[in-house]
Automatic annotation (TrEMBL):
Protein's name according to its UniProt entry: Interleukin-1
Family according to the record: Belongs to the IL-1 family.
SMART domains documented for this protein: IL1 (SM00125)
UniProt xrefs under Pfam families: IL1, IL1_propep
Primary residence: cytoplasm
Gene designation: LOC101819115
Gene Ontology terms for molecular function: cytokine activity; interleukin-1 receptor binding
Lineage per the UniProt record: Eukaryota, Metazoa, Chordata, Craniata, Vertebrata
Quaternary structure (record): Monomer.
Annotated organism of origin: Ficedula albicollis
Cellular compartment(s): Cytoplasm, Cytosol; Lysosome; Secreted, Extracellular exosome
One GO BP: cellular response to lipopolysaccharide
Sorted UniProt keywords: Cytokine, Cytoplasm, Inflammatory response, Lysosome, Mitogen, Pyrogen, Secreted
Amino acid sequence: MAFVPDLDTLESNSLNEEMLYGPNCLCPQKKPRLDLEVTSPGVGIQVTVTKGHLSRTFRQAAVLVAAVTKLLKQPSHNDFSDSDLGSFFDDIFEPVSFQCIKGSYTKAPVFRYTRSQSFDILDVDHKCFVLESPTQLVALHLQGPSAGRKVKLDIALYRPRSSQGGPRSGRVPVALGIKGYQLYMSCVMSDTQPVLQLEEADIRRDLESVELTRFIFYRLDSPAEGTTRFESAAFPGWFVCTSLQPRQPVGITNTPDQVNIATYELSGH
């Protein structure tokens, strides 16, 4: 339904007052006066009244018309600029707040690769590591010609972020690979506790994913005894171990050197 107010009535009311027409009342209702004093004689206004909730649309449009009219009445030698919009846009649109945050977000690697070294490894019971199947590492005593079956460890060294410890704290992060293969020991959760397994991987590089921490072990050397241990970085307190019984899989334990062996001797390069 369209309603056209009498032009004389509109001219008798200053545009400084906001005119609203509610859905249940076709009479003009006064609202607080506008800050902008603008008159536009001879302008016909057609108002469409619809049923529904009042909104700010009419008020916003009226403020916009008044503001633009005021700008047009300014001296012509002043150019219109973006800054002129700021004086009335806050009245037309809902205010939006912004926050500027400055900073650098360069992501540092979790572990930075440095180099690799090869070692012969024996547990303190003098058992060697043998690759019995493509993914099964066992420990057993080897003598004579069978000694050629033992595998060497290809130990990849990493430099951690300072917050993760380093050589000064005696915790050197390494990855334990099988020389001649792309196989590396990894510690993962299985059922209710961690297990040690061999995975085919290429990790002679910076490790930027926390998920790859499963390949990292802290090498804990005891220079006085000439021995070392390997503690899982993903599961602190769990150590690479061998069984007291021969020909058993190399595993992981949280009770080192009690019912198993978690201390080793490394030799060669």
